[in-house]
Amino acid sequence: MLVDNRYSRQILFDPIGEKGQECIQNSHVLIIGVGALGSSSSEMLVRAGVGTITLMDRDYVEESNLQRQQLFTEADVENKTPKVIAAKNRLQKINSQTKIDAQLTDAGVEELEAIVPDVDVVIDATDNFDTRLIINDVCQKYHTPWIYGACVASYGVTFTVLPDETPCLQCIMDHIPSDGATCDTVGIISPTVQKVVAHQVTEVLKLLTGNTEALSGKLVAFDLWKNQQMELEVASLKDDSCPSCVKKIYPNLDYQSQLKTAVLCGRNTVQIRAGKHRNFHFDDFKMHLKQTNLINYLENPYLISFEINEFRVVVFHDGRTLIHGTKNIQEAKKIYYRFVG
Amino acid sequence: MGIIVNGESLELNQRIETVEDLLGHLQLKKKSLIVEHNQTILKMEQHDKAKVTEGDRFEIVHFVGGG
């Protein structure tokens, strides 16, 4: 009974119908980032009956997430549960038929190249442009549509990138000042998230059900607080000599095997990721740490967290490390070398 | 001079000649954004050439990172 009725309202929606529903149930969607945007889009897609969803995120649940990241609970904060794990647990309760592939990892070139060829569409729910440019190039390489989405405060923006049709993110970024995007220091209200996701998920449903003529084709932006809605026709920004979508050189996929660091926007945190060839042994590391007297030590199956002076250090299974309490890369590296590597 | 930015009327008292001047006036200089001027998308290098005149319509869209 449940199965017969489950998607009836969506099937009644004419552009989808029985046939569209079947497409949705046979599809595989990759969601990169399971923060506010990723929580919301994954819930909508699971409820819509998508067959397989891969979630990719590097982080664990924190208290300040609860105001808008709808899949998470206070218990997840307490246990420092990785976002992909907390999300999977909740999503599986909503729809046990959807297969959820939870990947606790930083979305780098290697990780994306391993999954993007298998998926029908990619949703960008990340919080930084470095990752978006990698997504852009991987999706161009494997000819996969992806949907840019971002938000701060009451402002949101989204654009659907179709390989060989629309301009790609690299084309667009070449025509705007490159001083980096607005940082997350102005906060956000949760309706902003929902409106971006409403656009992103609708575009996904159009793509999955073959309704490509209904795609927006425009750069959509809005400010909910200021009651503004903008739609720009950006086809003219397609660059005939774009290294990503025309020349297919994919400049954003150049892999350097050295240590990678990133200051996480608005969070007073530095992320450190070891190079490709370095083997990290989590259990040895754990044994070693236990011989040291550390404050507020916590471990769960996915990570270890402890404090040292004014810093909190979180080390994941693969050795990826977050140093909270600093924006200074050198200072963070010093702590990393002392405890992790 | 009166113009429209993102659907809202804006009265400019200062001397503003180019889109570059307008972005400066709106404190949006060097921000990651795209400007549509009377339904034509401007490339970055056109900002200091495109003239602002009475009744012009602008749509200004920022690229933000959060998610």
The termini of chain B sit apart by: 38 Å
What's the shape of chain A? globular
Biggest sheet features of chain B: 5 strands, mixed
Class based on secondary structure composition and strand pairing of chain B = mainly beta
| Strand order, sheet with most strands of chain A | 3-2-1-4-5-6-7-8
Flag low-confidence runs of chain A. none
Mean pLDDT of chain A: 91
Overall structural domain count of chain B: 1
Which spans of chain B have pLDDT < 50 for at least 5 consecutive residues? none
Mean pLDDT of chain B comes to 92
Please give the structural blueprint.
The complex is a heterodimer of chains A (341) and B (67).
Chain A: H1 2-6, H2 8-12, H3 17-25, E1 28-32, H4 36-48, E2 52-57, H5 74-78, H6 83-94, E3 99-104, H7 109-115, E4 121-124, H8 129-141, E5 146-152, E6 155-161, H9 169-173, H10 190-208, E7 219-223, E8 228-232, E9 260-264, E10 269-273, H11 282-290, E11 295-300, E12 303-308, E13 311-316, E14 321-324, H12 329-339
Parallel strand pairs in A: 1-2, 1-4, 2-3, 4-5
Antiparallel strand pairs in A: 5-6, 6-7, 7-8, 9-10, 10-14, 11-12, 12-13, 13-14
Helix pairs in contact in A: 4-6, 4-10
Chain B: E1 2-5, E2 8-11, H1 19-25, E3 33-37, E4 40-41, E5 57-62
Parallel strand pairs in B: 1-5
Antiparallel strand pairs in B: 1-2, 3-4, 3-5
Describe this structure in words.
The complex is a heterodimer of chains A (341) and B (67). The model of chain A has no long low-confidence stretch (mean pLDDT 91). Chain A is globular, with a radius of gyration of 21 Å. Chain A has 12 helices and 14 strands. In chain A, the strands form 2 sheets. An 8-stranded mixed β-sheet of chain A has the order 3-2-1-4-5-6-7-8, with helices on both faces. A 6-stranded antiparallel β-sheet of chain A has the order 9-10-14-13-12-11, covered by helices on one side. Chain A is of the alpha/beta class and 341 residues long. Chain B is mostly beta strands and 67 residues long. Chain B has one domain (2-62): Beta-grasp domain (Ubiquitin-like (UB roll)), CATH 3.10.20. Chain B has 1 helix and 5 strands; from the N terminus they run ββαβββ. Chain B has one helix spanning 19-25; strands at residues 2-5, 8-11, 33-37, 40-41, 57-62. In chain B, β3 (33-37) and β4 (40-41) form a beta hairpin. The longest helix of chain B has 7 residues, at 19-25. The chains are: A alpha/beta (341), B mainly beta (67). Chain B: It holds the Pfam family ThiS. Chain B: It comes from Gracilibacillus kekensis. Chain B: InterPro entries: Beta-grasp_dom_sf (IPR012675), Mopterin_synth/thiamin_S_b (IPR016155), Thi_S (IPR010035), ThiS/MoaD-like (IPR003749). Chain B: This is Sulfur carrier protein.
